[in-house]
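One example copied in:
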Amino acid sequence: MSPHNSGKSSPPDELLALVQQYAGEIRSPAQQAYLRDILLNVMRLVRDDTSVGDLKIINTALREMRIAFKVFADYRHVRKISTFGSARTAEDTDAYRQAKEFSERICQEGYMLLTGAGGGIMRACQEGSGRERSFGVNIRLPWEQSPNEFIDRDPKLVSFKYFFTRKLIFIKEADAIVLFPGGFGTHDEGFESLTLVQTGKSHPVPIVFLDAPRGTYWKTWKRYVEDHLVRQGLVSPEDMQLFKVTDKIDEAVDEIRTFYRVYHSSRYVGGRLVLRLTAPPSPDLLTELNDEFGDLRREGSIELSNALPEERGEEALAHLPRLILHFDRTHFGRLRAMIDRINRAAPDELGAPADPLAVGAGVP
């Protein structure tokens, strides 16, 4: 069975046999299932008499994603920052210098950077990070978007025709998002990042709006959000915890560094949210989390656990302790507040750090 059922008739038996034969050469059962589903959907496109124009969109998008996935595969275990900002920012501006210095600082922390590979803020970030520590996620436009000299012809440069495939990569690969002053595109990318985290369509990440020193660009934007979105009930007050506005590089770097102090990553297993941590909370802290954030649970309690059997295949993370809860998948601002509380834990509120050489109990 494929992982998704379209509800439509299947292709002829001889084509199904070819799909089964090809998919059967793949070792992973999960990969087999999804490969069969992809191939069957391609066949259904033919059966549905899909127009040439629609086929071109599908083909281009699939090719762009395949190439991008291949480029990023070798850097899967390196944390990355997606950065956004205007292509028109001049080199002699405070915003350009701020972007360059931030990029230098965050790469010194071990991160790699993603930019749009163009000029302005993108060039500043790539100049600061250097070619070795950065990726270019370029968009092909009839104007203003050729790769800057710091990423041009680099193997880590990927060019896209479509904004939607490009933005998918920006979000999928990001362990944090930093936005500098920019135009319509920057606001689009900023609001989409917030929307995806707010709705749980993206994993929790720090989102930082970084002004130039003593700048008011994002401060003014934040007042607009408070005055016209929060006060009118268009977003919840708790959603303001999903991002930080600052004009200080130290605060931006600390926001990202602190987010991963104890929290490591998360995933869903069935109806349960699994938060992986680098150290377990003490019994007192676990009690506090249940008392303070009980509103996040649909049922049961927040529990400490080892890796679950369903997390098979993630052996590199098997040693990490987990917090598990039946999360309501609604209050992501409150979830961020709980992650922040865990990350602020004092040394006596945490157990011994997880041993990467340990075997995760519960993982076959």
Observations:
- The first helix runs from residue 13 to 23.
- The chain has three domains: 13-72, 77-259, 263-349.
- Confidence is low (pLDDT under 50) at residues 1-7, 359-364.
